[in-house]
Write a structure and sequence with these properties.
Length: about 475
């Protein structure tokens, strides 16, 4: 079959979709014509973040928080409210009534563009820059960007394919709120959905293999969140599901390794996501996780060397699986793919400092840089001293207003230089409160002047960050 040739082929319609701009298309290809591009995606147009990840989940998080506040958090402050119920279908339809048209309009925009060919099929590599689609079309790209994302990891046990068993990509579109729900997994995705459904009133049980939730987080945060979660929903640590069987009408029974056997209306398997590399059949270097290996310029590697004209970005190449990382990598690729000579003098490098992350569970969590064990190892290896401080929300004026006795902000820094090494916050608005610390780390701000070198609005919640930094034991400035 004759190959269809394009100046650029993008596999994936999430962050990769941003690479095909009017400016890029209008530039000459070097052959006296404007550039041509193809975008390939057999799934829902717009990628995971828009359709089944960051955006819809947070649109569920907010009303779930309102429901929890009315039922649980307001009465101790002297405000008696009554939660008359949760209109699940209205909540769901409001969310996807906004998201689905955005996805559709994005798809239609690409489908109607004469300079762009939209291919809604799966593809496999047959050469470094050659692809074949599921229908047999052969595609050749002057350059190829692999931005195919990730997919939920499935649990390999009997019954995992029953209709009552869901992943994060299907559970948000169910027709009715489950009365009894089992969440399998102890990471960020599981933590968010457990909080969402328990906030809406479902009886949530969370089953995890490890002793604590969010074990990759700083130990203090993991410990505090595990305790907080156990007060809101039932938590079963060190428990592994063995099989799932159909039970009564619309229900399943879940059996675990320790003799656990209970019936649920819905089971959510949320044990992580995996880079979607296997389906591409590409003979490129990969990490143990399955993610594609790239260099600092986002060039895909084979046998440790960059493959000319092949780039990758987002979940398929990094283990962060965060939209803000994918967007940054897309900006790097957008610059670099316009320099086919690939001279290091003109290429941009993926050079941003440590990546922050947030978990929009209840309570909210945000993290940046090293955990305490990582900082202690770093200090031992480099012969330096570190200083840590934990600031309670409840020891600030706004914390008094909230009667908050659990939330904290923890900071870790080099004692001699004032350099921030890590920051970890659990509590209301953690994802916002951590931003000044992200800025301090990104621009190498000396924390010894960070707190006193600017005004902090009193009595705003940001005083939690100010006081955390002031609590650190630094060597004095020269």
């Amino acid at each position: 079959m004759t190959a269809e040739r394009f100046d650029l082929i993008v596999i994936g319609s999430g962050s990769g979709n941003t690479l095909i701009t009017r400016k890029w298309l209008s530039q000459e290809s070097g052959q006296g014509r404007s550039r041509t591009a193809a975008i390939i995606d057999a799934g829902t147009f717009g990628g995971t973040c828009l359709n089944a990840g960051c955006i819809p989940t947070k649109m569920f998080v907010y009303p779930a928080g309102l429901a929890r506040s009315a039922a649980v958090e307001a009465p101790p402050l002297g405000v008696d409210t009554e939660l008359n119920g949760v209109r699940w279908q209205q909540i769901r339809d409001r969310i996807f009534g906004r998201i689905d048209p955005i996805s559709s309009s994005g798809r239609n925009y690409r489908a109607e563009d004469p300079a762009v060919t939209l291919i809604e099929e799966t593809v496999r590599f047959t050469g470094p820059r050659t692809l074949v689609t599921s229908s047999g079309r052969v595609l050749e790209g002057g350059q190829i960007v692999i931005a195919a994302g990730s997919h939920p990891v499935l649990l390999d046990i009997p019954g995992a394919d029953l209709p009552q068993v869901h992943t994060s990509e299907t559970v948000m579109r169910i027709d009715a709120l489950p009365q009894r729900m089992l969440v399998i997994g102890g990471g960020a995705i599981a933590a968010e959905f457990a909080a969402i459904f328990s906030g809406f009133g479902s009886e949530v049980t969370q089953l995890i293999r490890s002793p604590q939730l969010l074990e990759s987080a700083d130990p203090l945060i993991s410990q505090k969140f595990t305790a907080a979660a156990a007060k809101q929903w039932r938590l079963l640590p060190e428990t592994s599901a063995d099989r799932i069987e159909a039970a009564g009408p619309g229900t399943v029974r879940v059996f675990a390794n320790n003799g656990f056997a209970e019936e649920f209306d819905l089971v959510l398997i949320a044990i992580g996501r995996k880079a979607s590399t296997a389906a591409l059949g590409a003979d490129f270097d990969t990490r143990p996780s399955g993610a594609l290996m790239v260099n600092q310029y986002q060039q895909v590697l084979k046998d440790g060397k960059p493959v000319p004209g092949v780039w990758a970005l987002g979940d398929i190449t990094n283990d962060y699986q965060l939209k803000h990382v994918a967007n940054h990598e897309a900006r790097v690729v957008a610059h670099n793919m316009t320099h086919p000579e690939q001279l290091e003098a003109v290429l941009h490098s993926r050079s941003l400092p440590p990546v922050p992350a947030a978990v929009f569970t209840h309570p909210q969590i945000a993290m940046l840089g090293m955990t305490s064990p990582e900082a202690e190892t770093y200090a031992a290896e480099n012969g330096i001293e570190i200083t840590e401080y934990v600031q309670s929300y409840g020891d600030t004026a706004y914390g008094w207003a909230m009667e908050d006795t659990e939330s904290v902000a923890k900071v870790i820094a080099e004692k001699a230089t004032g350099r921030l090494l890590g920051a970890h916050i659990i509590g209301p608005e953690a994802s916002i409160l951590i931003q000044p610390l992200i800025q301090a780390m990104s621009f190498s701000t000396d924390l010894r002047v960070f707190a006193r070198g600017q005004y902090w609005i009193h009595p705003a919640l940001t005083e939690v960050v100010e006081n955390a930094v002031l609590g650190l034991d630094f060597d004095p400035l020269d």
